[in-house]
Specification:
By secondary structure, the protein is mainly beta. It has a domain of 141 residues. The chain contains four helices and 16 strands. A hairpin with a 5-residue loop joins strand 10 and strand 11. Helix 1 packs antiparallel against helix 2.
């Protein structure tokens, strides 16, 4: 049993014994809390804390394919090698493009600081230079896709103010829908996270501009393309829609592993400048797909 599942069981059990409606037990299609009490907010916070820990707080290596679909129907593909490691409770990530050829070697490094800020750098092989990505660029497109740098940063409950949550069934699965607004000034005004009640997997997120009823960006991670590895439930396929641009990006993760040895020292500007090989490259070539799906 994963740590996330244990946390969710404890939350559900506490809801029953506290005399409040137990999350996930309301027979109605949707049970909504519009003005959450302190205990409601605490429950939502713990559900999201467990979901974020499951999704982000894991060491992994993988190959990623980004397929970008424009409004006109054109397709562009990007492939990259990615490495993530949790060092002193802070998430460090590297992503290096392997195709197309004219972008090959471009590398992004993101390191979470103790104060929850993020240091982000990008290496441009055509210029042989490393430059810092400032906070105003966090909402920019990641390698020309509909994914943003914010999407791949470590998310924590301290980043959000909780507004309300709902209980629903989606595609036959009971879920929590947690409504929140970011405390920092970001490209969106509020977000709704869809989280599985059974194991805390993040199944989707919808992002809204101020004073709008429809989301302008939607992230979805289908259940049938998830795996269990290292005690975490992780997506191997995702879809990111930008409804303002009329485009979407399909994200596919191949050869995802959580047992690879990762040296802390690779997360440095020196690694970017030296073009040092990343863990997992030798063992898992790009043409060897990872077929395992969630049971």
């Amino acid at each position: 049993m994963t740590r996330t599942r244990i946390v969710l069981i404890l939350i559900l059990g506490f809801g029953c014994f506290a005399g409040a409606p137990a999350l996930g037990t309301d027979p109605s299609p949707e049970a909504q809390i519009n003005s959450p009490t302190a205990s409601d907010t605490d429950a939502a916070r713990e559900i999201l804390r467990a979901a974020f820990a499951n999704r982000y707080e894991v060491n992994l290596t993988t190959q990623i394919e980004l397929t970008v679909h424009s409004r006109s129907g054109q397709q562009r593909k990007r492939t990259l090698q990615a490495v993530t490691k949790v060092i002193d409770h802070r998430v460090h990530s590297l992503g290096r493009l392997t195709s197309p050829e004219h972008l090959r070697g471009m590398t992004v490094m993101m390191m979470e600081a103790e104060d929850r800020s993020h240091d982000a750098f990008i290496y441009m092989p055509s210029l042989d230079k490393v430059r810092r990505i400032n906070s105003s660029q966090r909402g920019d497109a990641f390698f020309g896709s509909d994914v943003t740098y914010e999407d791949i940063e470590h998310q924590t409950v301290a980043d959000y103010t909780f507004l309300k949550f709902t209980k629903e069934t989606r595609d036959g699965e009971p879920v929590f829908r947690i409504h929140a607004s970011p405390k920092r000034r970001l490209n969106y005004d509020r977000v709704i996270f869809t989280i599985a009640q059974t194991d805390g997997a993040i199944l989707g997120a919808e992002y809204f501009k101020r004073d709008t009823d429809a989301p302008y960006r939607v992230l979805s991670a289908p259940r049938n393309h998830m795996i269990v590895s290292g005690g975490h439930v992780l997506p191997t396929r995702m879809k990111v829609e930008n409804r303002i641009k009329g485009s979407h990006t399909e994200v596919t993760l191949y050869n995802l592993r959580t047992d690879e040895k990762i040296d802390d020292r690779i997360f440095s500007v020196r690694t970017l400048e030296s073009r040092r090989d990343l863990p997992g490259k030798e063992k898992y070539p790009e043409d060897e797909p990872f077929e395992h799906t969630y049971p």
